[in-house]
Specification:
3-stranded antiparallel sheet; elongated; single chain; 2 helices; 39% strand
């Protein structure tokens, strides 16, 4: 295959993967605590594809490849809900969630209480405190979640102030190593969690997605146009080769 076609196809492959990233961002523009992804590109010189334009000299052909997908962990805007079980994290911390596959981490502070009295996520996974799952009693009233994660209630008819636990908050020195697993959860293989003392919780709020919908829609249009332009260029190259072959066939032997 000619170098022009190889370069064009390499660009189309990266654009296709970039479009997947952008489309996922747009799909999660209203997902609580969602963090946008960004594609990172670099030049790739392939030694096996060369141009022999000069006697005794070869010139490497420059391709493009998507080196990695970066996560944008910038703070999303907070939105009041007036739900005492909702919390928005102010800082770089994550809440710890117990799943069948082990502990996972989330920025989604939209919580609820299940039939066993446990504090859980919207998907039903227990939200962990510093001493395990946080469990409420049937007579608990006026749930309060402090900025440091302490969970207190007014208990029973005498309305005694009781502690139900403290939400566990962790941060990561290398947050880019976190892997998205769906349902707003991250796994932390190769990125050990560490306690945080700088982040705070705001009760009655949720952190919205940090996706800029206008910017992502604009990027989607740009990617689509670039893909179409390269397709047109490759089609022109195909037509030129076809025309050259046809003219060569008409040359008298």
């Amino acid at each position: 295959m000619e170098n022009v076609s190889l370069i064009g196809l390499s660009r189309q492959m990266t654009l296709e993967r970039q479009l997947d990233v952008v489309a996922n961002n747009v799909a999660n523009v209203n997902t609580t605590g969602f963090k946008a992804d960004k594609s990172m590109f670099e030049e790739y010189l392939r030694s096996g594809a060369r141009e022999n334009n000069f006697v005794g000299r070869d010139r490497n052909v420059s391709f493009v490849q998507d080196r990695a997908t970066l996560k944008d962990f910038s703070q999303g805007p907070s939105e009041p809900t007036k739900n005492p079980l909702d919390v928005a994290i102010d800082g770089d911390a994550f809440l710890v969630v117990q799943t069948p596959n082990g502990p996972r981490y989330t920025r989604d502070g939209s919580m609820q209480i299940n039939s066993q009295g446990q504090l859980v996520t919207k998907t039903g996974n227990p939200v962990l405190g510093t001493s395990g799952p946080i469990v409420f009693q049937p007579g608990d009233k006026d749930i309060n979640i402090a900025a440091d994660g302490n969970v207190t209630v007014l208990e029973g008819v005498n309305r005694i102030d009781s502690v139900r636990g403290k939400l566990r908050m962790v941060s990561f020195a290398q947050a880019q190593k976190l892997l998205k697993e769906g349902s707003n959860l991250y796994s932390a293989e190769g990125a050990p969690p560490q306690p945080t003392t700088t982040s705070k919780l705001n009760q009655g709020f949720i952190e919205k997605s940090n996706v800029n919908s206008v910017m992502e829609m604009t990027r989607m249009i740009d990617v689509t146009r670039a893909y179409t332009q390269i397709s047109a260029m490759l089609q022109q190259q195909t037509d030129m080769r076809k025309s050259a072959i046809e003219k060569l066939a008409d040359v008298p032997a």
